[in-house]
Amino acid sequence: GNANLVALRIAEKLGQEDTRVSYTQDRHMFHCLIRDGLTFLVMAEESFGRRIPFALLEDVKNRFLASYGAAREAVAYEYQIEFAPVLAERMQFYGTNPQADTLNRVKGDLVEVKHIMIENIEKVLERGEKLDLLVDKTDNLQETAFTFRREARRLRQKLWWKNARMWGVISAVVALLIYFILAVSCGATLRNC
Length: 193
Hints:
mainly alpha, Longin_dom, transport, 2 domains
């Protein structure tokens, strides 16, 4: 009810130096921003804290200076008709839009980036585990290949000796058979041949 009176008293207390101050009255806070001799003031509930109201004041200050410059010679309420829609739109934005609080938005972005990084790290770790399994399988395959080569060489040698013994036995049997045939026809000592 008495917000205009409180705002007027606060404005009277403020000097002309560039500053940012906040005053509390009941459950409301009056936030003041003075830049280049211009005073920007907003009343907000305490629950808004300080960041959002001062972000609103900085935004309004920048828009006002961009539109009207320093405006030191202005008469009271001279820009109210032109600038009131801008004020209403900016107050609506900062009062309802969660994107208005830059710090909270940045914190939210950081949390999102953190979750993405955690997911990426988990994926890399999973790939690392898969690579470890692949390395283990490769090691096992190399051991199996080495064992196979060794066993194949041993089997080849075994078969070669078995084959050599068989040819030795066959050669001995053939030699005995020839001797036996010759011994039957020429005599046991083979003198008559």
